[in-house]
């Protein structure tokens, strides 16, 4: 009987440059979790905070969830996941699912390593590569020329889809910027637009019509993520709506599906409950004719995308490249999983030491 014998955590404050998306965050707080079993095998998991709160997640792991997971049987991990969920249920999903997610990723990494398999093959592979879209070369601070340059750089690298940001400069200006990129890349390139929850419903309805005229592939989080009814009105316009980086757990995603408020779901595994909950979200998405396109880290998400039938795209977004020793392999616009056992993510130990809190 193999059991979980040791759980350790560290926290790292990784500074972000100006060219990292549209959230306005200047630092990512990264919580790393190492799980060791009774045979001495180890797995690495993680979660993060962009606007604070990661310290509370680490505290929850160290002072509450550790006692639930320690000495539990590795083969009974789904049962342990549910026990941790029950332990934290009255806290709500926020910090709890992020903490559970970090442990869950570590355990899946450990289990795949024990089998000597890359994570996607341990989970059961549907494919060996997945399309990746360019998301890391567009910010509100860039000029129109810089936006076009970033888009064309992605195309030169073999990407067939790119994402832009909107909502911070005024909608008329945003329409001009998306138009400039569309004219530069042509009609065959898919363009997504992320508003980072910045718009009101009237603004979003007006903007959605302009984006539809420009052939935008999806409009992402135009409203606050809690506003399911508003997103439902937007979805009724016919422009595909994407949500999910701020949603947690299958029930929140299920509400969007049940109300036909989104057709692209973007769960972030370290925040939504880990591999276990991500796969549950994938399953319910199938019942609602929705697809998944996970948020953030492609080095992990490539495995999950390849292990389900309804994840056609992953995001290229270099949020924590400064602490990675190896980044995602991309060939002709498709992300390739590493052949190393587990998730295969390699961190730069010196960078982690430099940014450790």
Descriptors for this entry?
single chain; alpha/beta; Enolase-like, domain 1; TIM Barrel; 2 domains; 6-stranded parallel sheet; 4-stranded mixed sheet; 13 strands; magnesium; Enolase_C-like
List the helices and strands and how they pair.
Layout: E1 4-15, E2 27-37, E3 42-49, H1 54-69, H2 77-88, H3 94-115, H4 119-123, E4 130-134, H5 144-156, E5 161-165, H6 171-185, E6 190-194, H7 201-213, E7 218-220, H8 228-235, E8 241-243, H9 249-258, E9 264-265, H10 269-272, H11 274-287, E10 291-292, H12 298-306, E11 313-316, E12 329-331, E13 334-336, H13 349-355
Parallel strand pairs: 4-11, 5-6, 6-7, 7-8, 8-9, 9-10
Antiparallel strand pairs: 1-2, 2-3, 4-13, 12-13
Helix pairs in contact: 1-2, 1-3, 2-3, 3-11, 5-6, 7-8, 9-11
């Amino acid at each position: 009987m193999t059991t979980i014998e040791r759980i350790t955590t560290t926290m790292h404050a990784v500074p972000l440059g100006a060219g990292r998306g549209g959230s306005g965050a200047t630092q990512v707080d990264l919580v790393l979790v190492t799980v060791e079993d009774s045979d001495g095998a180890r797995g690495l998991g993680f979660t993060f905070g962009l606007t604070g709160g990661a310290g509370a997640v680490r505290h929850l792991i160290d002072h509450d969830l550790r006692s639930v997971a320690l000495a539990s049987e590795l083969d009974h991990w789904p049962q342990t996941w549910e026990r941790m969920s029950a332990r934290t249920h009255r806290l709500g999903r926020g910090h709890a699912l992020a903490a559970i997610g970090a442990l869950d990723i570590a355990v899946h990494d450990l289990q795949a390593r024990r089998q000597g398999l890359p994570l996607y093959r341990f989970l059961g592979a549907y494919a060996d590569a997945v399309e990746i879209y360019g998301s890391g070369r567009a910010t509100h601070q860039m000029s129109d020329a810089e936006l076009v340059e970033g888009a064309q750089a992605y195309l030169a690298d073999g990407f067939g889809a790119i994402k832009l940001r909107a909502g911070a400069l005024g909608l008329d200006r945003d329409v001009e910027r998306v138009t400039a990129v569309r004219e530069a890349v042509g009609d065959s390139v898919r363009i997504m637009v992320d508003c980072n929850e910045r718009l009101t419903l009237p603004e979003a309805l007006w903007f959605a019509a302009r984006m539809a005229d420009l052939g935008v592939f999806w409009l992402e989080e135009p409203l606050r993520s809690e506003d399911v009814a508003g997103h439902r009105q937007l979805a009724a316009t016919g422009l595909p709506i994407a949500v999910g980086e701020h949603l947690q757990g299958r029930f929140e995603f299920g509400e969007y599906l049940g109300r036909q408020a989104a057709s692209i779901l973007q769960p972030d595994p370290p925040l939504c409950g880990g591999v276990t909950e991500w796969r549950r979200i994938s399953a319910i998405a199938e019942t609602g004719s929705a697809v998944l396109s996970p948020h953030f880290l492609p080095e992990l998400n490539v495995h999950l995308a390849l292990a389900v039938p309804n994840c056609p795209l992953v995001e290229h977004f270099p949020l924590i490249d400064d602490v990675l020793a190896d980044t995602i392999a991309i060939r002709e616009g498709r992300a390739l999983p590493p052949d190393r056992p587990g998730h295969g993510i390699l961190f730069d130990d010196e960078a982690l030491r430099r940014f450790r809190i």
